[in-house]
Specification:
Belongs to the SNAPIN family. One of its GO terms (cellular component) is synaptic vesicle membrane. Its main location: membrane. It is found in: Cytoplasmic vesicle, Secretory vesicle, Synaptic vesicle membrane. The chain is built from two helices and no strands. The chain is mainly alpha-helical. The radius of gyration is 27 Å and the shape is rod-shaped.
Length: about 130
């Protein structure tokens, strides 16, 4: 019958370990959310920067075409396009990191809910507990 209750359900200290794990998850959740919001803000900033770089490169090309005196702005345009490429690369890295963080946050919430349900079912979690 104890095998149906789940791994470690009848072992001494499992309730304390579960409470510690739940406390640790609750402790880390705000940091994960804050990191997610910062990553989101950086991604928005990167998109804005990319748009400014595109506009500046377009303007430099236009100026270069309109100049009567031959100014070679091509190296500057190439530098801007290289910077834009790096911004896009960093934005992709941030997007992947944000997605991993979102999945981690989701798994933490799911695990916390599972542990609370297990603790409540085993009677090891008082109904009036402040962490509810």
């Amino acid at each position: 019958m104890a095998a149906l209750a789940g791994p470690g359900a009848g072992t001494p200290g499992s309730g304390a370990r579960d409470l510690f794990a739940e406390g640790l998850l609750e402790f880390l959740r705000p940091a994960a959310r804050q990191l997610d919001s910062h990553v989101h803000a950086v991604r928005e900033s990167q998109v804005e920067l990319r748009e400014h770089i595109d506009n500046l490169a377009t303007e430099l090309c236009r100026i270069n075409e309109d100049q009567k005196v031959a100014l070679d702005l091509d190296p500057y345009v190439k530098k801007l396009l290289n910077a834009r490429r790096r911004v896009v690369l960093v934005n992709n890295i941030l997007q992947n990191a944000q997605e991993r963080l979102r999945r981690l946050n989701h798994n933490v919430a799911k695990e916390t809910a599972r542990r609370k349900a297990t603790l409540e079912a085993s009677g090891g979690y008082p109904q009036g507990s402040p962490s509810k």
